[in-house]
Amino acid sequence: MKKTAILVDGGFFLKRYRYINKIRSLDPIRTANDLWGMCLRHLTQAKGEAFDLYRIYYYDCLPYDKKQHNPVTGKSIDFSRTEQHRFQLDFFEELKKKRKIALRLGVLEDKKRWMITPSKTKALLKKKLMIDDLREGDVQFDFNQKRVDIKIGLDIAAMTLKKQVDQIILVSGDSDFVPAAKLARREGVDFLLDPMWNPIKPHLFEHIDGLVSRIKRPDNHDA
Predict the structure, then answer these.
(1) pLDDT tens-digit profile of 120-165?
(2) Whole-angstrom Cα distance, residue 143 to residue 146?
């Protein structure tokens, strides 16, 4: 039986999963189960050809755990005590319990700066809002994921060159995977993209062997 590896961009998955299911507060157990179920549905293709699961790779970053001061209110925020921090750690623990799931964790780079949210920035530029009108939730601390994209690319290359899999399914909406996808396809690996119903740029179709989403379609099909 042919082997399939499923690679999940964690940040992308959680954003789309939250949007599709209209969830404000994520539950780690339910989210892990839904991720597992979505991945397993990929193993039976529409044409009926069966694939055996090689492994599910989940890529994300450990949550930020330092303290910062909100520049609008001056309030101290301990990120290690936030709901997002608790969810991330509990979610990772639930994933570890699942068979054949491997976590690939990068780090969050602290850029030591706060950013005004896009909607408020737009209002400021249009002079519909003044700086003094900003509230606590109108700014967010700036993080940058490190080592995640490179881990995805290295895993695709390693599995391809070692002939470990016949098929790779990438759950992502990013185009950074293109060089690794080209390598996999040149070596005869079937490369599929699951954007979770998120539209992709037309030029990406030439770098994949198929496009398929195995999560329920959102109410707004174009979202």
Answers:
(1) 999 999 989 999 999 999 999 888 777 788 999 999 999 999 999 9
(2) 10
Rounded Cα distance, 88 and 78, in Å: 15
Structural domain tally of the chain? 1
- pLDDT at position 201 is 87
In Å, how far are 86, 111, 115, 122, 215 from 118, measured between CA atoms?
Answer: 26, 18, 9, 6, 28
Distance between CA atoms of residues 103 and 118, nearest Å: 31
pTM: 0.88
* 149 CB-near residues (< 8 Å, 6+ apart): 174, 176
What is the domain extent for residue 177? 2-68+82-109+144-211
Residue 114 lies in a domain: no
Is there a contact between 110 and 65 (Cβ–Cβ < 8 Å)? Answer: no
In CATH, what number is assigned to the domain containing residue 197? 3.40.50.1010
Residue 47 domain-assigned?
yes
- Read off the pLDDT of residues 71-110 as tens digits, 9 standing for 90 and up: 999 999 999 999 999 999 999 999 999 999 999 998 888 8
